[in-house]
Amino acid sequence: xxxxxxxxxxxxxxxxxxxxxxxxxxxxxxxxxxxxxxxxxxxxxxxxxxxxxxxxxxxxxxxxxxxxxxxxxxxxxxxxxxxxxxxxxxxxxxxxxxxxxxxxxxxxxxxxxxxxxxxxxx
Length: 122
Prior knowledge:
The chain is α+β, with helices and mostly antiparallel strands. 33% of the residues lie in helices and 29% in strands. It has a seven-stranded antiparallel sheet with strand order 2-1-5-6-7-4-3, sandwiched between helices. Strand 5 (62-67) and strand 6 (70-78) form a beta hairpin. The model has no long low-confidence stretch (mean pLDDT 94). This is DUF2255 family protein.
């Protein structure tokens, strides 16, 4: 299956924050932001390639998202399409910009755009 079901998409779209677990080093995971664009879930590392969760998800290609009482298993695929990355940036601006202008601006920096990951069901 390459797409999440409607309910999962809605949960992730409505969640302000999710916790990503990459299984590395017994870490409890990192709190990140997720957006939904064209019925696809995307995440991005505010720390760029320095983000531990990003490095581990990129290397292992597998992770889990925790939101509310759900644990959602995912496969992480680097997004390389420039138009899609711009749509993801717009989704971050729309979802978070008004409430969190500083952190949102950090998510839109040129150097973090390559850390955009497309999440698919595992």
